[in-house]
Amino acid sequence: MTFLPSNSGCNGFQFTFETYLDSSSRNIEADSDISSSGRDIYDSVSLSESISKYEEQFGRTYHSYRAGSYHYPNDPTETERLDDQYEIAKELMEGRNYFAPFSPKNSPRKVLDIGTGTGTWAIDMGDEFPEAEIIGTDLSPVQPDLVPPNVRFFVEDSSEEWIYAPNHFDYIHTRYTLGCWKDMKSQIIQRAFAHLKPGGWLECQELNTLPVCDDGSMTDDYKLLQWARDMDDASRAADRQLVIGDEIKRWLEEVGFVDVQQIVLKLPVGGWAKEPRLKHLGMLWQRNLSGGLSGLSVGLLHRFGGKTTEQVEVDLVGVRNSMFDRNVHAYMKIHVVWGRKPDGIS
């Protein structure tokens, strides 16, 4: 089974879902009924005791391999939240895991999932494409042991030089890797270009944490907005990029990808949307984000934001409360960008 004919671009694919799903130019209608109260080439670091014995701080655990390079926890509380986050993202994308033009008749053969987290995306892809070889990499070995036979996980730091051969993968994927990279363009996108086969695809599905609003109901003193700005400032101090969604399409094009496509999805914060599906997703996202605020915030804002852990937790009370205000029609944007390495480029 071939990946793509050597002379094929996107002309043979009908991106009909783009018009349907892309919400960047559409406002979300608020529900007016809401109350105002409202080592072959896959050799990697072995799973030694030092890697599986996590760092403990602030009552949470953090990765020990390349300790301190990723500022969010990896304990069961966080991994359960990540699994729930995966389901929210999949429902927002109408059950899709990818937008690159794959299908049972056009299956990728070698897939790399960077920052795989709990590995749910890689496992789903392994089930969907049983002939494909799926590799998931992460700093933390938090993936399950029981996985499809074509799925493997490795502890790796993808910000360093990759061990894989050039022109090796058909498809490379990232999702919600905000805060992972010093420079996503050079560390991930350029390397993906080098390690994809000609005709292979890179797809980045990245969340912008800065809430936005279409109708002016969100003001500068909105606590969730203030939190997001504080997190962005602390991430910059930590030399990590947090708000990257608006840049990804340009980065892919600058590196050399062609047929670059983008859709922007809107994920409401809370249950203020009128459309039942978006209302449901907004409530799920509110619960997910609210439950993860402490883990996401304490390490970063304490180390690089100049706050004590007590100050962070006190501030988060106001942030959580702001997310229940249904008079504020805030949402977060998810940028889904995919592009193809040109044929004939090694």
Automatic annotation (TrEMBL):
<dbReference type="GO" id="GO:0008168">
    <property type="term" value="F:methyltransferase activity"/>
</dbReference>
<keyword id="KW-0808">Transferase</keyword>
<dbReference type="InterPro" id="IPR029063">
    <property type="entry name" value="SAM-dependent_MTases_sf"/>
</dbReference>
<keyword id="KW-0489">Methyltransferase</keyword>
<protein>
    <submittedName>
        <fullName>Methyltransferase</fullName>
    </submittedName>
</protein>
<dbReference type="Pfam" id="PF13489">
    <property type="entry name" value="Methyltransf_23"/>
</dbReference>
<dbReference type="GO" id="GO:0032259">
    <property type="term" value="P:methylation"/>
</dbReference>
<comment type="similarity">
    <text>Belongs to the methyltransferase superfamily. LaeA methyltransferase family.</text>
</comment>
